[in-house]
Amino acid sequence: MSEYSALPVPPMSIRFDQGAGTLSPEGPTLTRRMSDLEGLFRDSEAWAAAVADGDPIVYSVVSSPVPEIDRELPQSITTIQPGTTAGELWMTKGHQHPNHQGEIYLCISGHGGLLMFDGTETRWVDMTPGTIGYMPPGWAHRSINVGDEPYSFLAVYPGGAGHDYGWVLEHGMGQRVLAGADGLDFVNYVEG
Amino acid sequence: MSEYSALPVPPMSIRFDQGAGTLSPEGPTLTRRMSDLEGLFRDSEAWAAAVADGDPIVYSVVSSPVPEIDRELPQSITTIQPGTTAGELWMTKGHQHPNHQGEIYLCISGHGGLLMFDGTETRWVDMTPGTIGYMPPGWAHRSINVGDEPYSFLAVYPGGAGHDYGWVLEHGMGQRVLAGADGLDFVNYVEG
């Protein structure tokens, strides 16, 4: 969301409707289609076929008006659609904060997971409504929908943390998460 | 909560039970009795009488294990009991962040208000369940229970922001909030 820019905001009230998955007033909205996720799925041919076959929306991010600038504390709601591409569960691009700072995700609906990677170790937090997933500074993070319904969470993050998506393309996320016959299959990223 | 100290934490899952108003696992808990609020109520004699008459708990703050250190993003749940002291609604001490950074409060139960003061201007955000009150950097803030039930909110704030309680003793909060016959009465702080 480094695409965003805005001026500082005054003290304000933001309506957080957990049932509807909305913030009001709204700020910028980001929509990620399959074509925006180039180089991230293990099976690049299946990815290209999905792009050719309607290029579906994989996830969207709706922000509050609080801007992504240093010292502010913006919020957003991400909704990931359910789905798989060659068995790999639909996910966000994942990013590292170039200015290492902590972040929280609060699950509001659906069933997801939070994959974290510090360049060496991988951690997984199962996300159901009411779970706060904590990402300490220095841990890259990706969200994954592991259920059959849309998965939504509220993110709160320091506005000056930044988003480095290239870090994940270069380093991976340690593991990939596939839909298995009896649950989730975690496979090493480098085997992709 | 500058009393707290702890080591950094790994990636973790925190259960946020909005009905019960709890975070699990829990970190430090802070309890503020009437005697901890010296110099803050307009009527110091009524304050002293309340201290003498059982020194009631005015509010408590339960934190998650995420520590209050730079680059982390801790969370806490504050619960303010309903009550008045010489008509002035029960409230938190209020503080300024010496390292100016934004903060959010999410109301989870009861009816409260968020009073903000930048040294010149005052702002008020009415807080009901689902309201996110946004405190931009540089605005001192105090929470006030304006209802008949306990008022609880989740706070998310940068761990390095700090808490300067002396700022409020020196500068006030611009206004005081009293229980009026037909709602809230806002009076100038300096008239106290």
Automatic annotation (TrEMBL), chains A, B:
<dbReference type="Pfam" id="PF06560">
    <property type="entry name" value="GPI"/>
</dbReference>
<keyword id="KW-0324">Glycolysis</keyword>
<feature type="domain" description="Glucose-6-phosphate isomerase prokaryote">
    <location>
        <begin position="32"/>
        <end position="177"/>
    </location>
</feature>
<keyword id="KW-0479">Metal-binding</keyword>
<dbReference type="GO" id="GO:0005737">
    <property type="term" value="C:cytoplasm"/>
</dbReference>
<dbReference type="GO" id="GO:0046872">
    <property type="term" value="F:metal ion binding"/>
</dbReference>
<dbReference type="InterPro" id="IPR051610">
    <property type="entry name" value="GPI/OXD"/>
</dbReference>
<comment type="similarity">
    <text>Belongs to the archaeal-type GPI family.</text>
</comment>
<dbReference type="InterPro" id="IPR014710">
    <property type="entry name" value="RmlC-like_jellyroll"/>
</dbReference>
<dbReference type="GO" id="GO:0006096">
    <property type="term" value="P:glycolytic process"/>
</dbReference>
<comment type="pathway">
    <text>Carbohydrate degradation; glycolysis; D-glyceraldehyde 3-phosphate and glycerone phosphate from D-glucose: step 2/4.</text>
</comment>
<dbReference type="InterPro" id="IPR010551">
    <property type="entry name" value="G6P_isomerase_prok"/>
</dbReference>
<keyword id="KW-0413">Isomerase</keyword>
<keyword id="KW-0312">Gluconeogenesis</keyword>
<dbReference type="GO" id="GO:0006094">
    <property type="term" value="P:gluconeogenesis"/>
</dbReference>
<dbReference type="GO" id="GO:0004347">
    <property type="term" value="F:glucose-6-phosphate isomerase activity"/>
</dbReference>
<dbReference type="InterPro" id="IPR011051">
    <property type="entry name" value="RmlC_Cupin_sf"/>
</dbReference>
<protein>
    <recommendedName>
        <fullName>glucose-6-phosphate isomerase</fullName>
        <ecNumber>5.3.1.9</ecNumber>
    </recommendedName>
</protein>
